[in-house]
Amino acid sequence: MRLARHLSVTTLAAAIAMSGHAQAQTEITVATVNNNDMVIMQSLTDAFEEAHPDITLDWVVLEENVLRQRMTTDIATGGAQFDVMTIGTYEVPIWAERGWLSPLDNLPDDYNEDDLLTSVRDGLSYNDTLHALPFYAESSMMYYRKDLFEEAGIEMTDQPTWEEVRGWAGELHGMEDDLAGICLRGKPGWGENMAFVSTLVNTFGGRWFDEDWNPELNSDAWVNAVQFYVDLLNDYGPPGASSNGFNENLALFSRGNCGMWVDATSAAGKLYDGDESDVADSLGFAPAPIAETPKGSHWLWSWALAIPASSENQDAALEFVTWATSQEYIELVGETQGWTSVPPGTRESTYANEQYIEAAPFADFVLKAIQDADPTDSTLEPSPYVGVQFVGIPEFQSIGTQVGQTIAAALTGDTTVEQALDSAQRATERTMQRAGYLD
Amino acid sequence: MTILRSATTAPRSVTGLRSAQSKRAMITVLGWSVALVIFFPIFWMILTGFKTESAAIADPTLIFSPTLESYQAVQARSGYTRFALNSVAVAFGSTFFALLLAIPAAYSMAFLPTKRTKGTLLWMLSTKMLPPVGVLVPIYLIFRDVGLLDTRTGLIIIYTLMNLPIVVWMLYTFFKDMPKDILEAGRMDGASTFQEVFFLLLPLTLPGIASTGLLSIILSWNEAFWSLNLTSSKAAPLTAYIASFSSPEGLFWAKLSAASTMAIAPILILGWMTQKQMVRGLTFGAVK
Prior knowledge:
heterodimer, A: D-Maltodextrin-Binding Protein, domain 2, 2 domains, B: mainly alpha
């Protein structure tokens, strides 16, 4: 009897203690993408919770497309399942315009907002107010194998052109067994082949839409750019190029199967890591090639942390996003995970850090590429949209994917480039009419 | 005459025996071929889980140095147990409620049919033809308003409703094959409807009910659309766990394979252990 009474008193005391503890704790749910930098962020949960004992983190880590669909459903319906969302430069202005994101105009003084790179900060702002904080940012650039270039007697120029690249690809192709002259994205998708093709079209002098939102997909610039891309990959690309996205090309290049590769700057750290890459010692970097104009020749993308307006834990969420995008966080990653693993492209201070510069010889290229990219002026002729490798309108996801599929069909030889672009033009016109942009 | 007949029939029976043997051998070879083709992706996935990331994307080979590094990476990142417990709870919970609702429904349709029974059955099945994404937003809004988002209860409700048409159909087929005379005999002895169902129908159709339940568990275990869309962290089952290992940036095949192997292992073992009952249930009443 005494034991029973003792037990009940102890249980009650424990319950009171636990309920008190639970009241003091705020649990925030962070939705993020399964990219290496975010996995590192998740692994540093303890560091955040130690510094913020009143906040605990709950993680939802998903593949990019699944996460995008999941977050869109939640934020559009006000489901309030997430307190922090990982979104990209494409979503931020669209979601901010609809009032789905909390404006971040109350950042703490020690956050050092002025340290953020201007182009990245502008890409995450709506009406001159930040609506998401950059976690990491990337542009595009060219990787090449210095050993093969030396062997072939080719000298890399300060600013390569696509014509030069075609010539070099022809010389390198087949120099070794299973060596493709150049690797480029071919897998259809608005974030896959169309990210690259859009920059190619930009530099060939094309644009997605004229100033009245009329699609220009069968213009001379588009035909020239896409024909160049199809010929280049068919003549000097790896077998099955139409199914290669970022990951597949990363694997090919790191195994030594590509002479050149034009893709995201975020691959640099992985290619430079001798444990993951067979070409770390012979890796060369160059700016993304240009053709008619340097405008829009390399993209700008950043993954950023935003707070949905529907979140009930705004203060705790702000604590977390400012911590995860701070200079201190970058230093923490550098010290615990190695300096090549720090999230790149967000802060001036990262590129002033000697330890980082020493560990990452590609830092200058990345910084310059990100600083040069201007999403508000990425085409030779004026265009009505914001975005280098995408068009910042909600309809672009479906348009980009559809056009990507027709270009992939041209790459595999199922249609000609002209047929593919005529079909893409008609489909885009229909979508724009239905969306009310055209009469 | 007798000798003559034996002499003429003997070679024919030997030929018949040979042809039966070769037929059986062909069926065996065909059966094994189909089984191997179906099992090969699972075998390859299990194999890939024991490779390094770079070996996983290299040219396919059966010769490699096995490593547990992918399993270690998977374990270090996410709480497998939490996801697995959610899967067990929703798969078994939804199957229990689906059977609870389907047994009386199938009984009524099999033994007390009306002129609308066939139509009702077809209508129930037609709900399976609707793409789930078509009703995602209304269901999401309902779940949000009643507080069922990211709860096991919410998933159990959805899975119960999702599997109900198939469970009713299967039970209806099994019940229909039961001779009505047995139930009538019970009724003559004064059994109530409940006793009739509980003491006669259920024991006699147990293999069918067991295989239906197992199928419902497997369908719930593997379901990914609703589990990914209606849960976030607390009620997320193993399908969400697998989805967290695919990545558009960086190599992930070995880790994804390790996570998938861990996710399907419990249901694979359950299926292996109960395969006799499943086959017996699925062929129940097929040969008369």
